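Sequence in, structure out. Go.
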Amino acid sequence: MLSKMAAMEACSARVLASRLAATAGRRVAPLAAAAALPRLARTTRASSTSAQDANLKELLMATDLFASRHLGPSPADVQEMCKVMGVKDLDELIQQTIPASVRREATLNLPDGTIGEAGALAMARAILSKNVIAKSFIGQGYHGSIVPGVVLRNLTENPGWYTAYTPYQAEISQGRLESLMNFQTLVTELTGMEVANASLLDEGSAAAEAMAMIARTVNSKTKKQFFVSEKVHKQTIDLMQVRAKYFGMELIIGDHKSTDFKSMDKLCGALVQYPDTTGVMYDYSALADALHGNGAHLVVCADPLALVAAKPPSEMGADVAVGSMQRFGVPMWFGGPSAAYLATSKKQVRRMPGRIIGESLDRLGNPAYRLTLQTREQHIRLDKATSNVCTAQVLLANMAAMYAVYHRTDGLQHIARKVHSLAQLFAREVGKAGCAVMTTDNFFDTVTFDVSPASPQQLVEKLQSQGLNLRVIDGKHVAANFDETHLHEDVMSLVAAIKAAGAGGGAATAAASIEVNGKLPAAFVRTKPCLQQKIFNSIHSETEMMRYIHSLQLKDLGLDKSMISLGSCTMKLNSVSSLTPVSWPEVCNVHPFAPASQTVGYRELLESLEKYLISVTGFDACSLQPTSGAAGEYAGLLVIRKYLESIGQGDRNICIIPRSAHGTNPASAAMCDMDIKWIEDSNGMDLGEFKALCEQYKDRLAALMVTYPSTRAFFEDNIQAICQIVHDNGGQVYMDGANMNAQLGLTSPGMIGADVCHLNLHKTFSIPHGGGGPGLGPICVRKHLAPHLPNHGVVSPSSGGDLGPVSAAPWGQAGIAVIPWMFCTMLGTKGVTDSARYAILNANYMKARLEKHFTVCATNAHGRCSHEFIMDFSDIRKTSGVVEEDIAKRLQDYGFHAPTMSWPVPHSLMVEPTESEDKAELDRFCDAMISIREEIRKIEDGTWPAEDNPLKNAPHTQAEVCGTEWTHPYSREEAAFPAPWLLKRGKFWPSVARVDNSLGDRKLKVRFEE
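Output:
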């Protein structure tokens, strides 16, 4: 800091001396010279004052500026790296990387970045403190929940858990894989189903996924109707209506009690809520029988806490169970994130959406967990995938699983009894006050009651002013929901407020005789043992809970241990300051359907973030509702379809997608009922071929889905021409924002000619990946698309248009939106732009070091990549038999997570270092790759056998290396300590050897039995 001040002072002195010299050298008239002296004195004084002000401003600047902490390379590193690449400076590198035609000159409309981390936190606190933390009795799928402190501190707020990626590399992901097996076991036990996935985005989308799964199961050509009970939560019904429209499914909404299902031979399935949205519990066994008689399936949307005590869906004949695990130790967070679930029978497992964890064996014959049946997923099956789900809710699923481990089976049963007792107590007391309740026995946590002679709306509004939130059901009824955060006095205060507001007042009703005993009616009581596994019945102390969580953490490689250079995944720093507000009460404890008067702070922050993202993208409007990148793709394509319908061109349904696209692109397009046309782009998109394709389908062209920079890892020069061709033929351009980290402040989707894009805030804007979620995938659009942004039927966001909801909550995962807000506020205009500049710097530096040893795929005319680059190992496969998986697993022995494998180029690794890694870490990775290349040479020259070498046997576990026997032709040191830093920085040991993937798919084990 002081050196900068000295430099500024010296610069000011040089400027002043230069001006004096210039004046002395000119021939001027005496009077003019005399007149010039006062002006010169004033100029000198002004210059001196200006310099002093600048110096003072710098002297008093915040001492915790974020940019220098976020950006990895130091100024000296940057100079050295530029020298290696053969460029004068970073500016020259950017000029050689990004085409001049799309290079951005206008600066971002963001804060100036001088506020510092503490200042940004204070600003966030000032905004969010405008929220009112009321006593919430709203329910409707969102509940108050107590996060165990040991889980909050050791998992939720622990970088060992939240900085990890989706567990594609199973050997270094065993901790969270085990925890997800706990989650799947928990869900299957509660629902009575045979198999569950490892989380979905929210309850509404889980219900929609169940509908799609059932349609794949039955003959969807003849069975194109799906029934939804009118007593399902409204947000779920609304979301399913949007999904059904473009899925080709007729959604029938009605009363499940009076509908004649036996006569509905075109019905493929039905969805009911348990308990329903009014709190009433029904036995759906007869409904299941009627559906099964017609070859249809029953989906039950079930509350998991109710299932602790109540008869499970499986015993009613349900085929699928879905729901939200939010009330298992996850905050409401104004709607999200939380983990949804989907459970079904084993015969449906290959049709299930989302990720599934299974058990296999490793190379040494030991049990090991892995992602199973990945051939179902979008990155393999593309438009034929079971869903477009990519990012799910792993961190939240792990929180829910740990909640069950922490409380044990007996603790969960106690919580369920308490919640039911609170509801019984309330029903009895309002009954005494003269209010009739909808049912006096068949309820769990929600009581719907008649507030006559009061007006439901007026009563609810009056109580809201007292910090008590209820829900209007209809013109006579109001509902009150209870959860584990409520106390006896909360019930009594609520009843007193209801009486004071004019409800009841007559004679006591039948509810007044309800016995408060925490017991459900005999017809609904769970009778079979549940959650008998050891993991849910063995941990009694916080000490052991802490150690269990830590023991799992030690098995996983996250950013707390080393760089994760996954291409197209942007594993950058997730700063503590950015994450801090997520745990604040005013962020955690706000219901998504709370009245606007109580959510002023949230709305202000969310709308501020929307403006930041609009500036970054160069667009005009933004919706934060999509809950993941894939959900953003789906939402963006729906917006295009809505727009085309609005101008009378709804028959346009052709979507052109490059072959290198992310698998979610075609999966999302298929969900929107689009006809996909592929175009080859292995060496960049051929303009002539592309133009011919657009003209061929000019009457039906709806959209192009394009990623910029390309997934081939460079900025295409002709991107604007590509976009113009689409527009000339009546289509819209959807830009996949997966590579937005290379655009920040340097170019924008608006500049290249796109109409809509999604952003991965869990990549570009620093939300942690959480081991596979949560994410946030907002969309930004041009002005003509803004009227068609997603809306919500319960609470309408300010950005809402005429498209229905794509997520269960109005603002999607609002609870983590503060993270990208902090990221932008702390970095400011220059810091955000430098993030892209340094990301490009780091990638090109690594490429310069590694291209001497490996084949690097196509770059631009200057030989520059974007923020990532691709190494092709096809030649190595031929000369050594070593494949890309061998290199990926060998990197684990060096302490690194492998880059993205075999995509978008077969037999490759795609490396993305991000801006947050310093030169030393980049060099360690490069040194590891170069060392591995030398190891491959030993295989090529016969020093090591082709099938018994460190690459084929990687990774090596501590147990193997320290074991008595060692039969390999290489040493133990070569196996486990191939690089010097492993001794200096500490060795990360994979907890299992290479996992047998095919065995795990053949012999499915997806839950714990013991």
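Check: The radius of gyration is 30 Å. Residues 1-37 have pLDDT under 50 and may be disordered.
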